[in-house]
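Appendix C. Worked example: SIMPL domain-containing protein
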Amino acid sequence: MNNNVLAAAVLGLFLAVGLVLGGSYLNSAAVSWKSADRSVTVKGLAEREVKADLALWPLHFTVTGNDLTGVQKKIDDQAAVIRAFLRDAGFAADEITLTSPQVTDQYANSYGNQRPDARYSAEATMLVRTDKIAAVKQSMPRVGALISRGVLLSPNYNYRTEFLFTGLESIKPDMIAKATADARAAAKQFAEDSGSEVGQIRSASQGYFSIQDLDSYTPDIKRVRVVTTIDYALDD
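Step 2, the predicted output written as structure tokens:
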């Protein structure tokens, strides 16, 4: 009986020691795992102001008449006036295109006294597509001269002037590099505050590039923006 008690006591002692050592190992492993998993996720921003390099300037006009032949002649005559105005402003022939006219029979849905004086209404657009941004800006305030020459310009907001920037590919690498540097600076500051050092990049994602007008008064100046998100490991 005494031997059994002694054996049980020895076995219990070994189990206790094993649990203590095992617990110590597991605790050490957990601390190591947490240490290895230490990281910081930061965002880096890069912005740049650029000048637009392409302008789309639509001159939308309307004519009316009671016969299609007369309507077509009015379109041709007004298109010629607009072309002459644009040539005088310095635009080349290959920068100017005329869209096909859209003709509406105004009698189709009107009856009796509701019918307008002219049966047909036709709309067309003279589009200037050019890289001469300054020439477009200088010419836009002068379009009132077309009215005195018989051109009825339509204030249709679907035909607004657009200034575009098409050179994004040429500035992408530099902007991504600056956004990455900005992110690393933020990670370095965080690491210094926490008594760590910035380690390797664990993962990274590049946000999309956005191009917006600098403001509503200078649509020919664009602000290009990109944000990167980077996960850095932290080393002791």
